[in-house]
Amino acid sequence: MSGQLCVPVVLAVEAPDRLVAESLLSAIQRQARLTDSVICFYSGGKDSAVTLDLCARHFQAVHVVFMYQVPGLSFQEEILAWAESRYGVEIYRIPHFELSDFYRVGVYCKPDPSLPKVVVSDIYAHVRQAFDCHWIAAGERAKDSIVRNAMIKRSGSIDQKRGRFYPLAYWSKEAVLRYIAAHRLRVSPESKVLGHSFRSLAGKDIAAIKRHYPQDYDKIAQAFPEIGAALAREAMYGEDEVPKRHG
Question: pTM of this prediction?
Answer without folding.
Answer: 0.82
